[in-house]
């Protein structure tokens, strides 16, 4: 558990941690390349209504002939592991130093920035992990130009753009008839829709935890609730600024985005709001679960106490009675010294008295309902 | 209980769960038909000030002749189980692909969208369950055109529009004199008013829980409080965006809604605010109940502890005294070895001492108020 | 207690409960008359700078001659128990169907609505109960016309308008020199000022509860805190929308309200804000009290536990010692078998050892401060 | 303690309590004079760049000759105990009835109101108590005219204006070169700065409570935390509306306040924000302390329980062993009847077994860390 | 611990404490010099695209020749310990009295103020402490003029401007080509970026505390959580107004800041938002940890109680049985008086019965899962 939490913590820390800030006072626009990051792989897709070209390229400069044509060019860079390639990319696309910094020095907070002839959208993509509950989180930067879209992902592995790629290749829907702005919308839509499978996982886990809290709450349950709250917090921090960024895309009216695409973005915004809504609902449910857990613990302690009290309250008086007749007062010295010991029916009477006391107390406890196991809940 | 919660969870999950998102990256406007959904049943009501036609139709195309006439046509589709019919419906009413997606891929968040000659209102209707406390929740999409209103419900069973239908047929009120916008208002009003009976159920349940928390709080009580909080959370998520949507209907000034209807919508908005208000009040009451429950549990543990302490504090010293006179010091070897055992009044004195100790402690506890049953509350 | 809570609950429920919504889908403007409501009593006061007429009337139509004159007519309807009279009233004053609905179908949320030549203000009036802590809550609807003011109260019993009536009759202040708008202000001011005596009651009760939580917290205390929170919640729901309504009265600039009266309304608004402020403060105090209560309960359990532990820790070891010398090892078989029993000073030494152990432990506990009664607080 | 809390409560109640509202429905502008209030003392300071006159006057009418001159006249009324004088004051300064009501019927919520040729500023002044932690709270009303400033304080005792008076007399700074608006600013600045010494007291007290919660938390600690939260709540209610009032002074642009003074007011506003900030920080610290207190109580109960458990778990089994050998089975009837009693080494072996059991359990508890006093915190 | 907390408290108090307010009513613009403050050290850097001059000066007047030239002059004052020098500085730079007050009377809340030809920015710089977790916090005031930037720091020791100084000297980036506004931006950027290393420390500490709460929660853990919450509160109070101030720098459009620098400030604003975001996340994590801590304590008490109950419930009945056969009923007087004592197998049977009872109870407890150590969490 501890190791798991630590790994999680590192994951969170990684997002805010060592590599993600440069030393205070360094040159703005400085880019820092993490030595462990995967080397960039670059894919180029160039399409118009009739043709599609898709191939992998090695040097950023190979894009140049495609950028100025009327066809839409989508350059998809996956991996941030080479300072050289990233800087050449910056020159090819004529990126502002601050844009390059935002793209490379991950993680950056999701946002949209308008640089006259380019629009920068920093997004955060989540991909559910297959086995365990959890998700990979990766920054995707979209730089939209007149006839091109440059996307930069942190790593080549996880990606939720396959559907868009196949729509381009097969010419499904209107994507081939539209410009680079529609492509940007399609990718954003895929990113936002990518939150739903992750949220579904959390919905299931909360459901499981609800059962667990009722049936058999352990300390592990508590850990799980804490962890879910923590991960939902992280999801919330990813989706919240993304929603705002999409909203300002819709309203601020950059010339790079057509009216028609704006209508589609409104739909994308609605989905982002829905994701927010669900995250907040799950957060409230998780903190409600914490309350239920705490009172389940209290209830269990109550039961333990009751058992102790019932046992003690019954046997301590009985033991006292037994203790009395264990005293060694000399019955020969005086007729008042424990004459019971010499009675013919002394022992049976004594046992009978004890039985009456014991069962009497038991009856009293039963009457007050202490003997019912309050943890058994009528299941209907 | 567990099964009940699971069912509930599924209900909530259903609203956010498996079927309600398409794979990230799929074509926007793709509609997904749930195989288990009931097949659509279509009703057409066409009326003007003098005539009413009401009949069930089987093919969406049968509506066409009614749509362009000056009379108001209300096409009510109940059930989402046929992709073919839904797509033909989209063609007949010339729906934007995003509209069709919103209508079919339930659940969508309540909202209003203005598509020049059509107005889309996604609403959420709740219908109380008859026996148990709870409610059915269903999406109703209203598409308002110049002379027609298309409504799409998830299933044909539960519905709160019967009152409106009968007002149309019997010509009660001004509904026959008004256009499709008034019809849309009348339906929205019915949807919002439909929250009140559901809320009344929760008011009653909270009242019951208050009694239960005072009289006999069990773990079941806790489950019930948690469940009410959960269901109120769901209600809140339904009514909140609905209120905003009605508000933007009033203010944004679509041409499809007349000034006169806007006044009526203001009334509808007031009711939505009132619903919100009540939901928030109930939520605060429910979380107050949680506090009361937790301290009721603490109080009960307190009582258990008190009983244990009273019994122990009285009998443990007495048992010690009995233990002393159970020791086997040889009285013959020394006059100092337990001479009490040979006293004439030894045993009676010993018992008397014990009685004094026992009743003395009892008196002390009584004086401190420990013997009163603090759980008995003076009922006035 | 339970009955009291139930009665309270009903009071709250009554405000949201059975009668206050019509069946979803019914005609807007439908008025529902509660069979148990008191029959309406109508008072007419007509005054100008020189004359005052005040008498009770039976038929709404009797007002007609007064309404068009330049003198101010105040028609005060008390009771909602007759559908016939209420509908005739609607005709006499030419009320919009929605206005009549809002006035009759209580409770409505406080609000202000502008209907060109009429201004509807839905207010909520509270009147403190004489004996117990609590308040009556009643809806007052004010309909302001050019030269008249129609007020509709739920019942004839409680009322805080007597001061205004006497000012009109005695001609105190400027009320006789002003129009119907000033009369509306004077009534609103009386309604808002009516919250202060109720709040004072709650201030006193919170003060009492503070003493109680310190001196002798019982479960009843908890109930009382919960109840106060509940009632303050209700007060908050009454005053909040009222404040907003007065604010929009000031800003929205209806022609029915003169500039001069607007200055007075600003004062009324300040009072409403002050009421809000006090309600929020009391709510925070009440929830702070809950915290104090919970830790008082914890503290008390702590003390009980300490007593149990002190008694057990002292007597259990002593009883063990007594138990040792109660063993029956045969001292004749061996010199090692409990030779103490045959010692000359055996018993006194044994008692002495016990005394040392007992008082030693007692001293240790005293040193650790366990014997002080931590619940006694130095009162300064 | 209880008496102290009661006194405090009365102080708070006094602010909202008996005397501070008139009967609902009374004439607006009615002033209510508290019979116990101190009689008004009136000071007049009249100054320009060259001269200063300062003397006490008895009748409000004595001010009249000073008011119209170009020199700045500051009339400072201390005490609200005479209806006659207050009403004559209203006539001398030509106050609107609502102004006089706000000034006299304390406490009023801090606010600013613009009456064409007069500006009313209701402020709340706090003065720290010398010995105990706490503060006096008093309403100060400032009425700013063209060439005069009228200030009305509740009582003559506490006051934070001495610094301003001396600056006027000694001609320090620019105060003598500026108009009445600068004087109003100087007084407001003194009022806001007067919150800092009070806050410093609370900072010290919170620091003390932190030590107390760690070292020796008692029920008194809890009371103190509650009381601090209560008093901070009161401070917050004083400063919050004051900040808003200063802000609207700056923005609303009354002609009575010059551009230059507005710059100074901006500084005053910054200080009010800083006060707010500190109050909120202290409130959060105080509620964090409550959490620490609650878990300190839990920890202590844990320790008590551990001690009880250690003592019981060690001695109860031992007592049982002793009990076995205290049984009276007849060793003569059978060789199986407690032959141990007749063994040569019986008693020593029995004691040895007891010792092994006892120290074994002790060792186990020591190993689990139960014997360490968890309440001792390593102090570094 | 206590001393540590006290030191911390003083640090916090110092920020709000003794020296930071002047006596209410003193002259605005009065500067108060703390006798213990370090004496000011003044550095001058004057640069343009080709030359850099950097040297320490002793008298503020030495700056004068540099201020009016077109080159950018950065005067950096470190230390507030001399009233004389600070006032001469005010004269040299022609500072408004209120500016000088804000600069000298630390701490002031971060803010930006526009004085026509000067722009005052009060910032708060944090520098992580090397060994312990914590940070130094210092006010930096920036006064931006046409060709100069005056910065005033509280003390000469900690500083995060070294990177900027070296960029100026080595001519890295565009800093030498830009004006004083860019320099101000560079410093602000260094200040904001300086929060990240501090936040990283807290991220690590929270991670450690998570492990600690799981593995071995002590009272020290609680103290640490409280302290982290407290310090995060302080960080939040530093960054929140700073973010607002940067935002108003961007929007309010002072002429002293060029369009180009405004783009850079936008980047700086994004970083401030990111800092806010992280502080809030850490605060939520810390308060979640408190919940986990509290239930860890409850769980532990549960275990203690269980052990006590298991031991008591097993041995108390057994001791009772032993007590019965320790009674001294006279077997000779009656065949019914404890005949078991004289049975041939009496003792073995008695022991067997005890064993059956004891192991039976043990089995029952084992079956209910009480013997598992619930605190052992499966670590995966």
From TrEMBL, chains A, B, C, D, E:
SUPFAM superfamilies the record matches: CorA soluble domain-like (SSF143865), Magnesium transport protein CorA, transmembrane region (SSF144083)
Subcellular location field: Cell membrane; Membrane
Domain of life of the organism encoding this protein: Bacteria
Keywords: Cell membrane, Ion transport, Magnesium, Membrane, Transmembrane, Transmembrane helix, Transport
Signal peptide: none
Cellular component terms (Gene Ontology): plasma membrane
Protein name: Magnesium transport protein CorA
